[in-house]
Amino acid sequence: MKASPNFNGSTFSYENKIINKSFFELLKWKFTSDDTPWPNEIEVTPIEIDKQRVYNGINLVFINHSTFLIQTMGLNILTDPIWSDRASPFSFIGPKRVRQTPLKLSQLPPIDIVLIGHDHYDHLDIDTLVKINKSHSPNFIVGLGVELLLNEHGIEKTIPLDWHESYNQAGINFTFVPCQHWSARGLFDRNETLWGSFIIEAKKKIYFASDTGYSEHFKKQRERYGQMDISLLPIGAYEPRWFMKEQHMNPRDSVLAHIDLQSKLTIGMHFGTFKLTNEGVNTPLEELDAALNEFKIKKSEFIAPKFGQKFRITE
Fold first, then answer.
1. What share of the chain is helix, strand, coil (3-state, %, to 5)?
2. Is 0.90 surpassed by the pTM of this model?
């Protein structure tokens, strides 16, 4: 792994904060917090994708969790792709999906770029990445250190970035930027790889948060990179707040981030796929409505998408 001013020789950190909770705090959460059950399965309507490349405007599809297909300027881009049934290192235990993906991996158009915000299992699904690599051989843009895991699984076309570093392909600039989160695949590798969000600068500017708590980084990034045309922000997996606040935004936090980024259009994500935390499956949608009303923001400006919903942005 190349040297980084954000690495102290053993771990990375966001502004020297400890974002991740301890194992004992995890146990306290699991044994003392009230939990809202989810249904075992929620039906999703299958969709089809036009495999022709998009050169004018942007086609954007919400697939599931934090996975979007972004088609613009002739490139097809996937964010944090996950098609596995569980967000877990195991096939028999761990958060199980309640909504299937609206399209199969085999139905994807040719994929050129895969963005991976960090190495948590609901964002870096290695089985999915290996299949995408075999079928499409895209470039995988990742935070520092994550390339080592991908290389171990035969994925060689990796582009590791430090915060504020960029990579350009076909005229589209991808910049990796800081966010308030953390990384780990197990109990003993906390923060050994770098996490972050992405700013995609094509004919429009797209912000892909991946996963984050709310902090001043949104405002700082708007000041440094300018107003966002489209922002993809998490709205789920946030209860209980004493445990999740630093690492996951609730819908009100996401609305504040939308305001900080001066986003023209924001689309929610990271909800309704895997039961990761204690809130109900529909609670993020209800609380997003309340936050939009509180801040007098039009619902057409911050959308909680349906699974498989397609967006066509031309202006």
1. 20, 25, 55
2. yes
